Amino acid sequence: MWNYEKRLQYPINITTPNAKLAQFILSQYGGPDGEISAAMRYISQRYTMPNRASTAVLTDIATEELSHLEMVSTMVHQLTRNLTMEEIENSGLGSYYIDHTVGVWPQAAGGIPFNACEFQSKGDPVTDLFEDLAAEQKARSTYDNILRVVRNIPEIADPIRFLRAREVVHFQRFGEALRSIQEQLDSKNFYAFNPSFDNPCTAGCAPEAR
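The structure corresponding to this sequence follows.
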């Protein structure tokens, strides 16, 4: 299904470790609006999309989110390598270090571990695509917040800007997929019509009233 080109989607070369910034950026690895959630959400939802175009959009974006996951984990790794114990303790990374040393592990900036309950695969394409639109905006907002913190550090800010720009593109593509589905709404799509809910005469009505 995938061909893996062994290079980062955007080059990353962070020369100065910074444990505090690593904790912030880690949220886009395993936080509530991070890249793990995005990749798993879209690859799970693709199977119930009603047309090939929308399935392709979910597959394409899920694949790209995996590359973003690789970028974010690379940033976290480069920001935490060669830290001294004093730097780890003073940065607030101590509790993370006890459990994971400086390995990359999915959690939010506040320390909450990744949880698959943070995303949904509902099986209704309109429901799922609206969630996807919201997910991309939340991810974009998180990157906005990170940029406010790292804006004066180009080696960190530049790849974060790239990731933010891709969230905007994904939002646009999900909008296109949603429109393609809404143009094809029929009785098979619960968003348009569900006879068991929407027909008051499904049961108990005289034949002439049905």
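Residues 17 and 82 are 7 Å apart (CA to CA).
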